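To whoever is covering the structure queue this week,

Two jobs came back overnight. Logging them here so there's a record in the thread.

Job A:
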Amino acid sequence: MALDPELLKILACPVCKTPVEYHEAESVLACAKCRRRYAVKDDIPNMLPEEASRESPPRGDEHRGG
């Protein structure tokens, strides 16, 4: 069972207000802007920021001083 497409249309990251993308294989809602990943368990998204994980930036995206 997957998340309701109508629900996905209105869900946004509670931290930065950016729409989230559902990654069904990983059971997470991912925010591309702040890189938070919200777990989905039994088709119920946990959108609590304090329980979200953070995705590491891709190699080469680290800020380099200079």
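Job B:
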Amino acid sequence: MTNITKNGTGQTALNGDVGHFDEVAYRDELIAMGLPSEDAGVVATKTANARRDALSANDYRLNLIASGVGEAEAKRIAAGAARFLATPEPKNVAPQRVDGFQPLAGILGAGVLPDAKKAVPASMSTRTEEIRAKRRKLVEAQARPGETFEQAERRYLHENDRPAGASSAGQSPAASGSLRKPPEGDAQADFFVPLLYDVATKDSRSIMDVAVFRLSKKDKRPNETIRYERADGYVEVVSGEAGMASVWDYDIVLMAISHLTDAMNLYRQGRGEKPNRTFRPHVSEILKFCRRSDGGRQYEEIEGALKRLSTTFVEVVTTTQAKGKRALRTAKGVGLINSYETVSYADNGRLTSVSIEVPQWLYNEVVEVKTPAVLTVHPEYFLIEPGIGRFLYRLARRAAGKARAKWTFKLIYERSGSVGTFKEFCRILRKLIASNDLPEYTLAELPGKVGPLLVITHRDASLDELPELPEDDEGGDDAGLPPA
């Protein structure tokens, strides 16, 4: 099908001269065929991903079924996209690596040229096998007595064709006290982009003990400075005109850290190339990774988040003194991201693609060291609704680990950067303790010498093996926190 552009020229979804696939043109084709615009956008994106990964039409159909699409619908979508997809893999062709950290030309150019059809990327082929093995284990684990694998698989696919999270009665689970309800479709795996969000979430260990972002959704805090005093110096967070980055904006940084880590793991195993600092996820992949709904406003908020992340500046100042020598003061300034670029539709402003440059300090922590300075974050972290709850989880993940740790309420308040009163902060803290539903950790309040104490314990920790908590040290310094 050919679309006529505004200047009267013909435009097709597949440019025969160079083999480029035009996702926007294909979306327009689907709309012209009667598909709703939202559905057309999803199908066009999935087709682009399938083409990028050099899938055949049959593989595309199987992946659609595996991700929860009905068999008839999957067959129809795959048949319509067959002209864009790969032919079966020939022998003796060098494999190619395709992932979120490749240069843009490798994704939009070489990755969709005819040569790309001739080879399934080695990493994607391996990942596909891993996904199939994982699904087989899931099917076998849910098989009923006397069922063959094929019978169990059909039943598994049928049951998972229901909306994610729906019970047998058709009801969705309610959100708990501090955790929001997962978005619809959250539990369904997307087999088209396993490299872009199906990875363990990671966070930078070096900045988990202070809030390098605001914890409030309402107060944007433009042109403000938060200062955290430390035993050997201080940390300052400075915002720009667009406002200070929020703990929810920081989810995008978590995604970049996670994929740098995943890409480096593949590189060390000899299964991929060394990642560079540019990360190009699709907008829908960001929303999926951060466990957010795929709504129009969410797309708008991503661009605002990127602007705030790029203009929020963190300065770390430390003072050191060797014996018999003059004290030295070192100041290091970094951004949460270096730069970004977005592409959106001119008529409605809806984002279609994002490019993010990871800052050098973050890249070095993950890529240029033998042991990356990152910690795994629980998937339900993204469902924590209160900003203070998110800060508590990050603090616990670093200091308590698999055991437990304690802090005075006052010290947590000072490290959170909160602009509310200490009394209000304590009220929210006690509400979180009462709900006690943070992932991985339990919360408890104990009396202290200079005020209440918060004790956070890992849920899987054996109480018999936990070390005794030290006596309250007046709560006036960083004794309850590890050094940065």
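Note for Job B: The chain has a mean pLDDT of 74.

Please reply-all if you pick these up so we don't duplicate work.
Q.
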